[in-house]
Amino acid sequence: MVWALLTESLERRFDSAFGVIRTEQELNEQLSQRVLQLEAILTQLGEAFALDDDIRRERDYLESLLRQQGIDPWGLPQGEEE
Predict the structure, then answer these.
(1) Looking at the chain, which terminus has fewer C-beta neighbours within 10 angstroms, N or C?
(2) Which strand (E) or helix (H) includes residue 8?
(3) 81 pLDDT band (50/70/90 cuts)?
(4) What is the distance between the alpha carbons of residues 30 and 5, in angstroms, rounded to a whole number?
(5) CA within 13 Å, CB half, 49
(6) pTM reported for the whole predicted model
(7) Any idea what DSSP says for residue 79?
């Protein structure tokens, strides 16, 4: 949100400096578009972080199953007796 507002502020300054005239409605529409883009990006990022959580949860579950069977999932394999 801060990035969208910062960009809008800079655009308004540049418009003013170079004599570009935009209506308030046009500026509001651009800001709305930026906010929607940011929401989409944040949603994608959230899903990416959720994937890591899913992987950790599955790892923990599989680790607990191994421990229930008396296997140390992080231990060295036991050598076979010949």
Answers:
(1) C
(2) helix 2-18
(3) low
(4) 11
(5) 6
(6) 0.49
(7) P
